[in-house]
Amino acid sequence: MKLFTLLSVSLSFTSLVLASRSHSIRHRNLHKELAKKDLPECKTPNYPPPTYTSGDDDDHESPGILLVNKSPDTTSYYFYDNFWNGEGAAGANFDCPNTYITMTPGEVAFVSLPVSFKGRVQRGTDSIHATWAEFQLRADSSADPLYNDYLAHGDISLQQGCDGAATISSSKPYKGKMLINGFTDDVVTGAPDAAIRNKSDGTRALASTEGNWETPKNRAAIDWLQSKALQGKVYIEGGTGVADVGSGDNRLWVVFY
Known about the structure:
Blueprint: H1 2-37, E1 51-52, E2 64-69, E3 75-81, E4 84-86, E5 89-91, E6 99-103, E7 108-112, E8 118-123, E9 132-136, E10 153-157, E11 166-170, E12 180-183, H2 219-227, E13 245-246, E14 251-256
Parallel strand pairs: 1-6, 2-14
Antiparallel strand pairs: 2-7, 3-6, 3-8, 4-5, 8-9, 9-10, 10-13, 11-12, 11-14
């Protein structure tokens, strides 16, 4: 009788596990299809199609991004590798994401990336209205060997727009310190209409502070962001004055709010 009871409990537990796994797989597939619908048309010939991940196994050493969705919404995040990288410059990739993931509120995931990855992760695919978490997983492209420490570095940029807060931080101490930069407050709500340029899906966002092929730089957005005491925390204007976030490995934490 005890054996029969144990077998029944075991079978019931196995059924629950299988049912849970089946639900999880359906859930991930649904997220994949929803995120896939938002993929932009890649206009670069022969560019490889993006890969979807529901989060990769983390051995705590492999290069990549530890991503956290602290927003109240289920959100898709897209990773864009630069088209080219040079001394203090890069060819930004606006329409050909390499990897994407959909995350529920509060979810944490590791996204494995090639150690050569130099680019960004952003919310959605509307590149010129999004908050950019910019990073390189291995600094190795400077003509000055002093800047080639082969470790991860990153920052937060609002120069193409802002659709919410984000932070970037060390995975391991960099030169003895755990570093973090970015911001956590909502700076979109309450912004003057002159500073707003909504995303293609209608989501409210701040206009570009740098300008792009759609519009010149928006002075109202610049003034609004500067009034929020974000200088030194994010890129608003220019390419200097924001503290670099380094990590003692080839990984970084990125949190979107």
